[in-house]
Write a structure and sequence with these properties.
This protein has 131 residues and is of the alpha+beta class. It has helices at 64-90, 96-130, and strands at residues 2-5, 13-15, 31-35, 40-44, 50-55. It has a 5-stranded antiparallel beta sheet with strand order 2-1-5-4-3. The N and C termini lie far apart (74 Å). The relative contact order is 0.13. Mean pLDDT is 78; it is low at 1-26.
Length: 131
Amino acid sequence: MRLLSQTAAPSALTESTSPPVASPGEGELRGRGTAADGLVEAVVAGYGRLESLEIDPRLLRRGTGAIADRVIEAVRAAQDDELRQRQELLGGDIDQAATHRQLEAVAAEAWRGLDGMIGDLDALTRRFDQR
């Protein structure tokens, strides 16, 4: 089996029977997802960063399009698993729409502050140019 795993060389291929997966209590959360009846297995670390990908050689007979589709499916399942664990750790569901609105409000306030600072700098520059 081929396994893509995080090593000193980020894209190194190594042989392995199972990817390294820490339990949620041990450091960073890990999400695991499978596709094609277990022929593809993905493991993601924090916030969906792909950490390992295992593809059973039997899947190779189905062609590159099928492999790509199953890899995407397994990675998305792993990302969903990691998000579910993160939500449980935080004490419940995260309202993504509300979080997005809050981030937009913070960004708008930051831009207003930056715009004010730019105006102040522009005024100072004009004053120095007049001297």
